Amino acid sequence: MPIPGMPSRAELVDHLVRTRIAGHVATPRENNLSHYRGLANGDRAFWFGLEFGDRWSDEQDVLAVMAERCGVSDDPEHRYGQDTIDPELTVDAVERLAARLRKAADGEQRVLLATGHPGGLLDVHRATAVALRAAGCEIVVIPDGLRTDEGYVMQFADVAVLEHGATLWHTHSPEPMRAILNGLHAEGRPLPDLVVADHGWAGCAGQLGIDSVGYADCNDPALFLAEAEGTLQATVPLDDHVASPRYYDPLTAYLLGQAGLTATD
How far apart are the C-alpha atoms of 196 and 39, rounded to whole Å? Predict the structure, then answer.
């Protein structure tokens, strides 16, 4: 299915709510709070390769940022049931991401795209790569033979992914991105000017000082905290695995349109 024409902002907001990419999302409140607590308690599985020290050791501080940047309920007494992502905040963040893509295109920069959520976001990243290459960017080709404890780090449709048992693998780990960047260094190749990713792929790159933008669900607070601290340039709040990956097509079209890029296949 081709990417549709670029929707208006109002049309995109409506679409995000109807498909539950934003609005009343599937991720329950108790799962959100559990992850915020894990990050605050220093569980690095929730840090996504970022280094927070003791700056976010209060769960309520994490909740406050998530309410501001993602749109979850700011009521600490709301412990169970429905939680939300504000679709207006989603579109605001898409526009920030688009501005960084425009900068990459204008400078014909080296861009690396990666996903830990291939079941939902692979085609969003693939379409972004196609548009950036058409605008003159270099899409970074990752070194061969990379692996982590979870599996092999590969590139599929211009997007770096983790492969395990002949299957594209869901991962929050920063180690695949670390393997790519170490591999580029070992080959004497330049690092990316920009990483477009999610999960630990985005967190690891941002922590190492590379311009990084990404997507994150409401139960994944690390990238939102990183943007609040200036480590990431943009974090888009969304449900990162809805019923159909085609539901993300209007968001992708809006992103590329705002960036002044052409969706070509």
Answer: 23
- E-assigned strands of 71-140? 84-85, 110-113, 138-139
Decide: 191 and 210 in contact? Cβ < 8 Å.
yes
Q: φ and ψ at 190, to 5 degrees?
A: -70, 150
Q: Hey, how many other C-beta atoms are within 10 angstroms of the C-beta on 167? A: 10
**Residue matched to tokens 């477009």:** 196
Read off the pTM.
0.95
For 256-265, letters b (16+ CB in 10 Å) and e give bbbbebebee
Q: Please give the Cα distance from 133 to 170 (Å, whole number).
A: 26
The answer for 4, left when phi > 0, alpha when psi is -120 to 50, beta otherwise, is: beta
* 61's tokens: 């501080």
- Nearest Cα to 180, choosing from 120, 140, 132, 215? 140
Q: From 97, 107, 110, 105, select the one nearest 193 (Cα to Cα).
A: 110
87-106 and 118-134 helices, crossing angle to 10°: 40
pLDDT per position as a tens digit, 113-123: 999 999 999 99
- Digit-coded pLDDT (tens) for 68-104: 999 999 999 999 999 999 999 999 999 999 999 999 9
Identify whether the C-beta of residue 224 lies closer than 8 Å to the C-beta of residue 217. Answer: no
Quick one: tokens of 216? 């994150």
CB 213 within 8 Å of CB 233: yes
